[in-house]
Design goal:
Structural class: alpha/beta
Largest sheet: 3 strands, parallel
Number of helices: 6
Strand content: 5-15%
Distance between the termini: 19 Å
Shape: globular
Length: 173
Amino acid sequence: VEGLGTRFVDPLKGLNLMPFLDSLIRESLYWPNCLTSTERSFGAVPSLLGSLPYAERGFTFQDTLPEHLNLIHILNENDYCTGYFYGQGAWFHRKDHFLRFSGIDFIFDNSSFSGGYNKIVVGKDRFFWGYNDLDLFRQSFEVLDTLPKQPLFSTYFTGSTHAPFLIPDEDRY
């Protein structure tokens, strides 16, 4: 989750900012102390999926990716369907380059959304940023229902906790 650290998971002045997330900790893989090998979120994908080093300027930015083994390779070899869900553009920071090199079965990003979801448009030039996390998950459930029945590994790269912080129904929160 982009920008989601313990300051969001732990209660703040007695208020749980992420309801029910603390219950997922008891049912998931959870690291209370984690050191990243990257300075920015683009490095998280190769780091988490392959324990890959940052490299000179970020693993995904290398002109030619070196041969390596990562979780996507291993799961594909074991008949898993592998997918990547992202509310923004997978081209950003060449995440798509890394994922395709890894043999991912599908990439679902902001260019893949069906109608009915609200686009995040920012700035004077009205740049299409993507979709918020709630819509990302809603759309992904529609996609998951169409997949063949086989083991599945889906990676979600969320972005609502990243600038420009445009959250629907903001007054509610």
